[in-house]
């Protein structure tokens, strides 16, 4: 049963990673030609263009934070014996890699704030899973709970993406 649960968590994690790349690199676009050709980099944390407005920036920070929470949860599920600093490096490294790819591919603005907020979101995911496992009292039951929740979310997201794809034709 443990192996079956781990297999499901692995599949859901791979789906999450694919969606993460599509959201961050391809900005939910179905065609590469629809992407903005932007190559910029901001190395000053929480420094924003004042013309866009504070509400936009707050929303972007919150979205960047929330999108990495599942990564922390998945890492806790899939790598229970791995040290915290290794999980931290995986989260920060993934965020840094995606920001670097945005710059290399000229498909977005690379921003240190995104790396910081993504990493903080992943750390929250690590904490949420740890607290839930302690409350439930069993990692196997916690894995089952999070796998069911992730499965439901994955089905809903894939269904919505299917509707978007169908509507764009």
From TrEMBL:
It comes from the Bacteria. Keywords: Membrane, Transmembrane, Transmembrane helix. Pfam families: VanZ. Residues 13-131 form the VanZ-like domain. InterPro entries: Teicoplanin_resist-assoc, VanZ-like. The chain crosses the membrane at residues 7-32, 52-75, 84-104, 116-133, 145-167. This is VanZ-like domain-containing protein. It comes from [Clostridium] clostridioforme 90A8.
């Amino acid at each position: 049963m443990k192996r079956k649960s781990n297999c499901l968590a692995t599949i859901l994690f791979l789906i999450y990673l694919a969606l993460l790349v599509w959201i961050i690199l391809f900005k939910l676009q179905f065609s590469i030609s629809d992407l903005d050709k932007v190559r910029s980099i901001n190395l000053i944390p929480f420094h924003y263009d004042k013309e866009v407005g504070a509400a936009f920036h707050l929303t972007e920070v919150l979205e960047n934070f929330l999108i990495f929470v599942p990564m922390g949860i998945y890492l806790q599920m899939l790598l229970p014996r791995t040290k915290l600093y290794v999980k931290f490096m995986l989260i920060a490294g993934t965020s840094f890699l995606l920001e670097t790819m945005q710059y290399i591919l000229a498909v977005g603005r690379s921003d240190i704030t995104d790396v910081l907020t993504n990493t903080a979101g992943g750390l929250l995911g690590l904490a949420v899973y740890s607290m839930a496992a302690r409350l439930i009292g069993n990692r196997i039951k916690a894995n089952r709970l999070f796998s069911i929740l992730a499965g439901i979310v994955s089905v809903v997201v894939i269904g919505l993406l299917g509707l978007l794809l169908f509507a764009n034709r």
